[in-house]
Amino acid sequence: MFPEKGSEEEEVLTELEERTREDLTFDSGKILGSMCTYPHPLAVKVVTKYIDRNLGDPGLHVGSQRVEIEAVDMLANLLGLARGYGHIVSGGTEANILAVRAFRNLSDAEKPELILPESAHFSFLKASEMLGVRLVWAELNDDYTVNVKDVESKITENTIGIVGIAGTTGLGVVDDIPALSDLALDYGLPLHVDAAFGGFVIPFAKALGYDIPDFDFRLKGVKSITIDPHKMGMVPIPAGGIIFRERRYLESISVLAPYLAGGKIWQATITGTRPGANALAVWAMIKHLGFEGYREIVRKAMKLSRWFAAELKKIPGVYLIREPVLNIVSFGTKNLEKAEEELKKRGWGISAHRGYIRIVMMPHVKREHLEEFLKDLREIVAGITP
Ligand SMILES: Cc1ncc(COP(=O)(O)O)c(C=O)c1O
Fold first, then answer.
1. Which end of the chain is less crowded, N or C, counting CB atoms within 10 A of the terminal residue's CB?
2. Which residue's C-alpha comes closest to atom 8 of ligand 1?
3. Is the predicted pLDDT of residue 385 greater than 60, yes or no?
4. Quick check: pTM over 0.70?
5. CATH number where 143 lies
6. What is the per-residue pLDDT for 386?
7. How far apart are CA 211 and CA 148, in angstroms?
8. Mean pLDDT over all residues of the chain?
9. Would you say the CB of residue 224 lies under 6 angstroms from ligand 1?
C-alpha cells in the first residue's frame, strides 16, 4: 500500500534493516556461487559522490561523458585495441544484446541467425526474442569448449555473426577464440566474445603465466567484446561493458534522442537514463588499481581455485566437472540435489544447475570460508553417500 503519511528517516531505515536481515551479504563469506562481490571502497565513494550524474543526457554532464569515453578506451586497451567504441552499460545482458543488435543491423540476412555455444549465457535468449534473431546452438567438445567444426557446419546465408565465450558462466571455460576468429574471417562474419566474467581475469591470468587461449581484439575476427566491471572489476552494480572494434557497430544501433535537456544526441544503449556514477567508478578503479593491482587480485583468486580444486578431489563421492581454467571450480556429488539442499540449509549461497555446483573465487571469498565449506561438504556427502 502506498502510505498516506510519510515516516521518520530513522524508522524507515530500521525497518529496512529488519526486512533485509535474511539477505546473504558478501562480507559473511557465505556467498560462494556469485560472480559479484563487495565493491572496492573507492568505487563506493565515487558512486556515492556522483550519484546524480545521468549519462542518458550527456549534454548536461559533459565531464562525465568524457570520463566514460576514457573508461571505454582503457577497457579497449586491456583487450588489445588503441581505441574502442562502446559504453558502460547495466551489465553483461545489455552488452550482449547490444552486440547482437549491431550484428543484426549491419547484416542483410532475411531471417537472421546467430551461432553460439550451448554453454552461452541466457542473456542471448532475451536478445533473440527481442531482436527476432534465431539462435543456432553449436555443440561442445568433451572439455566443454565449443566445437568449432560444428560452428562452421551451421553457417548459412542467414548467419549474422558468431559468439564465443571467454569464461563460461558455469565452468569458466574459454572457447578456442583464435579458431573462431579465423572462421569468422574466412566467412566474412563478425565474432562477438562474451568475456563478461573473463574480461577482468584472463589478461591478468595470462600475465601470471596461466596457459589460456587468446580471446581479445588482437584476433582480427573479434568485432565486439562484453566485459563486466561489476564482476571481477569490483565496481558496484550496475556496470557492464560493451566494446566494439569499429565505430560503425555503435552507429548501427544509435537512435536520435531529440528532446534532452542537454541537447540532441545519438543513443545506443537500451537504457535511456543511466547511471554516470558507475561509469566514473569504472574509470576510478582502473586508474587506482592499474594492471598490477588487478593482477594481484587475480593471482590470489587463481591460487585459491587451484587449492580448492585439489581439496575437492580428496573427498570421496565428489568429483570435478573439469580442471579449472579461470577462478571458477565446479563439482558434482552423488545425489547432488540433496547435497545442494543441505548446503543451503547450512547457509551457503550456492546453487546446483546443469548437474553441478559452481564456486566462484571472487575477491570476498577467502581460504577460511572455503575450509568451512569443505568441512560441511565432507559431512554432508558422507551422510548421503551409501
Ligand atoms: C558469460 C556471461 N555473460 C553474460 C552474463 C550476464 O551478465 P549480467 O548478469 O551482468 O547481465 C553473465 C552473468 O553471469 C555471464 O556469466
1. N
2. 92
3. no
4. yes
5. 3.40.640.10
6. 44
7. 20
8. 97
9. no
